[in-house]
From TrEMBL:
Its EC number is 1.4.3.-. Keywords: Oxidoreductase. This is Gamma-glutamylputrescine oxidase. The keyword Oxidoreductase applies. Pfam families: DAO.
Length: 409
């Protein structure tokens, strides 16, 4: 896929989109298909943020369970949010099929419990989804069943979500970019935004080598937007997550994951993993609560992997990478109208593969004046982080470090 040129000079558009990840690319694609003139700007390369550097897992539901949402937003909104989440999985599969995106899309997601008393809770939640929402794709797993599927002594049970799945995240992003370009969107990589002036007639976005005048601005940079908008900064924070890829495991691969599903566990700092088409284990583990990535990522991830798979303690790790993602205090996405001309959708807290493409579509609907679904997302409770922009990171580190310690107890 060829590079997209940097923006040089001044231009105009109906909509300017910031961020070449799933949200921004989906918004650009759906707007361009509807006849809007769209300019998308990315400070680096398409998919270079969280969208190209995640575990590729497709989860059911929102980031928080339905029982939490029922208490937080009421049963009607909780049901509407479940419907959106189901649509989000269908949209991913439709985009892959409709635009012939080669991203190794596969069905199946195992949610594994790392503490014995979590198993009954997982099974009860699967029953709640079945009885209340008609979702029958969650298969409860006892200890023997989870061990038959995942070759690790770390888990005591869980559920197998037949409606979940996994894909190659960067190839999915690149496929969305190609589809958006074919639809008419103008994409500019290596174009860093330096400011945005919101006026009565629209927004002027300045970059390091040009500017865009647009009627609407969609801020879709997720965890990489720090410093662009103070309101977003107080609600969205960036953390770094890491993945290591082992050498090809050959015949051993099926002893790690028997059915080629993706796996995520119940830790607060989640361990998540899947097999690549060439039989490598792609293992995500560990976080750092700062704005820059660690050095020597394979060495950082290895202990996390060895705790789950002690039989792989000495396996060669060929690659390691990290990504910056956005989180909120409640782990619910921050979707808001910042002004008459500026909309934002960010902070999927690890659930973005499924949710972000749909949320980009919903941003496109809002630009077109269709606000019902956008307003639903705007009602999600997402309070500001305590401490303001100065103390929010120290307070976050203290809180998240406590939960990380609790995982090990």
């Amino acid at each position: 896929m060829p590079d997209f040129p940097p923006l040089r000079g001044e231009t105009k558009a109906d909509v300017c989109v910031l961020g070449g990840g799933y949200t921004g690319l989906s918004a650009a694609l759906h707007l361009a298909e509807a006849g809007f003139d769209v300019v998308l700007l990315d400070a680096s390369k398409v998919g270079s943020g969280a969208s190209g550097r995640n575990g590729g897992q497709i989860h059911s539901g929102q980031r928080r369970h339905q029982d939490f949402l029922e208490a937080a937003v009421g049963r009607d909104d909780a049901r509407a949010l479940w419907t959106l989440a189901e649509e989000s999985k269908a949209l991913v599969r439709d985009l892959v099929k409709r635009h012939a995106i080669a991203c190794d899309l596969k069905d199946g997601l195992i949610l594994a419990d790392h503490k014995p008393h979590y198993v009954a809770e997982s099974h009860a939640y699967a029953a709640h989804l079945r009885d209340t929402y008609g979702y029958e794709a969650m298969e409860p797993l006892d200890r023997e069943q989870v061990h038959a599927l995942v070759g690790s002594p770390a888990y005591y049970g869980g559920v197998f979500d037949h409606g979940g799945g996994h894909l190659h995240p960067l190839n999915f992003a690149l496929g969305l970019a190609a589809a958006a370009q074919r639809a008419g969107a103008r994409i500019h990589e290596m174009t860093r935004v330096t400011g945005a002036i919101d006026g009565p007639q629209g927004v002027t976005v300045t970059t390091d080598a040009g500017s865009v005048k647009a009627s609407f601005l969609l801020e879709c940079g997720n965890g990489l937007m720090d410093g662009l908008n103070r309101q977003v900064d107080t609600h969205v924070m960036s953390i770094c997550n890491y993945i290591a890829a082992t050498e090809p495991l050959g015949a051993r691969a099926r002893s790690i994951i028997a059915n080629d599903a993706a796996v995520a566990d119940s830790k607060f700092v989640v361990s998540y993993f899947r097999l690549s088409p060439d039989g490598r284990l792609l293992f995500g583990g560990g976080e750092s609560y700062r704005r820059t990535l660690r050095d020597n990522i394979p060495a950082f991830v290895r202990p996390f992997m060895a705790r789950i798979f002690p039989q792989l303690a000495d396996v060669r790790i060929d690659y390691g990478w990290g990504g910056v993602l956005g989180i909120t205090l409640t782990r619910l996405p921050f979707v808001r109208r910042l002004s008459d001309h500026v909309l934002v959708s960010a902070a999927y807290s690890g659930h973005g593969v499924a949710l972000a493409p749909l949320f980009g579509k919903i941003l496109a609907e809002a630009v077109r004046g269709q606000l019902e679904r956008f307003d639903l997302l705007g009602r999600l409770p997402v309070p500001a982080f305590p401490g303001g922009t100065l103390l929010r990171y120290p307070l976050l580190v203290a809180g998240l470090s406590y939960y990380a310690l609790r995982d090990r107890l």
